[in-house]
Amino acid sequence: MGSRDVLRANDERFADVAAGLTPDEWAAPSLCTEWSNREVLGHLVVGCSHPVGTFLGALVLHRNFDCANTATAQEAARDRSVEALLTDFRAVSARPEGVGRYFPARLLLGDHITHELDILFAVGREPDIPPHLLNAVLDTQVAFPNPFVPAYRNSQGLRLVAADTGWCHGNVGPTVEGTAAELISVLGNRPKVLPRLRGAGAEILADRLLSRQTRTAG
């Protein structure tokens, strides 16, 4: 199965999971700063379909990638029901347009799974994502720098172990152990499940998240 086929299959799985959330859960804040869970879904629709020129226009207008990203996600979700957004997401995942056609599938897989965790962990739901997909996301995250996800920087000098899937990274350094989903979320600078992580490296990783969030806030 090619990487695009893997991405589409995962998106269908996520859409089925997301269809079971309640209205209150969709309205709740996500782990993504400033976005509700419904707005995260709007972002996923935008990410698979937004015309490149339209997003560049938003970038010029807001003069900041994060602000432009937030504005487009909020706009996509503002006047659409969750049901309509899920229908849109299924459609644009099956046939991506705009930026969704050009962004590498392996990076989109990481983005979509990270945002699924943003939604589920925020409302106290435990994810049930196939282990091979979680491992694939972790492999991509720690392999090279990504300007949108700080996992590569956060993982430096640490030995990472996913106790549930058998994935590991690094032969030396303090150990950080958790589930694969917890590692994906924390390496992506989401501190929600930091208390679940174990090992001598967990405190180091927590310090990295705190320092980067402080610099961003400043």
Overview of the structural elements:
GO terms for molecular function: metal ion binding. It comes from Mycolicibacterium llatzerense. With 218 residues, the protein is mainly α. The chain has 2 domains: 3-123, no CATH class; 131-217, Nonspecific Lipid-transfer Protein, Chain A, CATH 3.30.1050. The chain has 12 helices and 3 strands. It has helices spanning 3-18, 23-27, 37-49, 52-62, 65-78, 82-94, 99-102, 105-122, 131-143, 151-155, 180-187, 202-217; strands at 159-162, 168-169, 175-178. It has a 3-stranded mixed β-sheet with strand order 2-1-3. Helix 1 (3-18) runs antiparallel to helix 6, helix 4 packs across helix 5 (65-78) and helix 9 runs parallel beside helix 11. The termini are far apart. The relative contact order is 0.12.
Keywords:
mainly alpha; 3-stranded mixed sheet; 218 residues; 62% helix; Nonspecific Lipid-transfer Protein, Chain A
The secondary-structure element order is HHHHHHHHHHEEEHH
Please tell me how large the radius of gyration is.
17 Å
Spatial order of strands in the largest sheet = 2-1-3
Instruction: Write down the overall geometry.
Output: globular
Distance between the termini: 44 Å
State the helix count.
12
Q: Main sheet, how many strands, which sense, barrel? A: 3 strands, mixed
* Arithmetic mean of pLDDT: 86
The percentage helix is 55-70%
